[in-house]
Structure of Nitrite reductase:
Amino acid sequence: MAPLRTRPTRTRRDRCPGVLRPWPAADGGLVRVRLVGGRISSTSLVALSGVAEEYGDGDLHLTARANLQLRALPLDSGSLSTTVVAAIENTGLLPSRPHDLARNVLVSPLTGIAGGRADLRLVAASLDAALLADPGLGDLPGRFLFALDDGRGDLLTREQDLGLVALDGRSAQLRIGAAFGPVVSLDDSSQALASLAREFLAARGTGAGAPWHVAELATPLGRQVAPDPRLPEPGPPLGFGSHPGAEHVAVPEGVLTPALVTELAGSETELVITPWRGVVVPT
């Protein structure tokens, strides 16, 4: 069982931005659009780029959690206008306003394309559906992170709150903060993670001093067990360049310009934003 980290003293809620909670940066409103597993259709990418061109600085900005940010948006009393919010919603990338901050789900970018022990695309989609189906899970902090490693080890050392590591094509070991949880079937894994997320919300309490992360709880969450011997060794970040079935395209300074969006979107119907500020283009 992994020891709990020293619990910080929180005096406020996290300020991680969302569409409905923009950050007032020097150049205007900054919003984060969450992509489950970094996956985005070329249609939605082009549409979101259009929003950035019409209302913001013209570019999309990649994050270390495989999300997209828009900058320099106009704010009115600290909020986006209803017009801008509607434009973002029309891209299909804000499926639930109450869950704007809660859908932080990292997934091995090449899962289902090449390599790994299991295709986690359905697991990620099922987890997202479980989050969206529960109004209470919309209260997860904006910094709370799920990380799903498909067994190649690329997310094994990533700090996360809840997650899993695939052991084979049918089972995975849960991650609970820095510790490991029970081995579960992949079919049951998304509900197991959603249940742990509910336990976290119940344990953290409410108010400005409530923990942001699992590791900050006063007592361990869930049933923590020893690491399974079938766990992979930690793997390196996905390198840029050609891979079986895909190209990992580096995005200079993490900025998707309209020209680069047009180039990438013209090649495939679905792309994958990676946590290393790149884009996976299936080939």
User: Anything to note?
Assistant: Residues 1-5 have pLDDT under 50 and may be disordered. The longest strand covers residues 179-185. DSSP finds five helices and 15 strands in the chain. Residues 186-204 form the longest helix (19 residues).
